[in-house]
Amino acid sequence: MVREAKGPKxxxxxxxxxxxxxxxxxxxxxxxxxxxxxxxxLIGCNDHTLVTEDDGRRWVTREPAIVYFHKQxxxxxxxxxxxxxVSYYCNLASPYVLDKEALKYIDYDLDVKVFxxxxxxxxxxxxxxxxxxxxxxxxxxxxxxKSNVLVLVDWINNHKGPFSEEYVDLWYNRYLELSRRxx
Length: 183
Prior knowledge:
Blueprint: E1 13-19, E2 25-37, E3 41-46, E4 50-53, E5 58-60, E6 65-70, E7 75-82, E8 85-93, E9 97-98, E10 103-114, E11 120-123, H1 125-135, H2 138-157, H3 165-181
Parallel strand pairs: 1-10
Antiparallel strand pairs: 1-2, 2-3, 2-4, 3-6, 4-5, 6-7, 7-8, 8-10, 9-10, 10-11
Protein name: DUF402 domain-containing protein
Keywords: Hydrolase, Magnesium, Metal-binding
InterPro entries: DUF402, FomD-like_sf, Ntdp-like, SA1684
């Protein structure tokens, strides 16, 4: 008996869609290469990936970025590989779901940016407060997001997972290897 593979395999390309709390589409990334999937995580790479905004504007990512999604944490992490070092953009967001169409999550506005020198900035607090009131996030969602900010900052401070140099090197090299194979 042959079992069908569940979900994308290493080297496959997927679409990523972020939504807002009210269900409206926020942003779409086309052709993210899957580097690894497990029961709870998906690691991929965006490299000159087409991005479409909710208003129809389109742009292409400038540099390779390793993306990390988890089914239990309320954040996802984008490690952007730049000439001056790795910068991180961390979205406070619902855990992801994956269906035949795309990897999907709800973006909750708050972001943490980490610069190559280690400086951290919490971004979009005003936007979070505006949307929280407009769409009634509720105290439970607010508590979950605030506790996940603490988890995220702990990971950053302790160079856990995506925040370790070895992690970025490992997955970027795997991306390069898979890219060479598919040419």
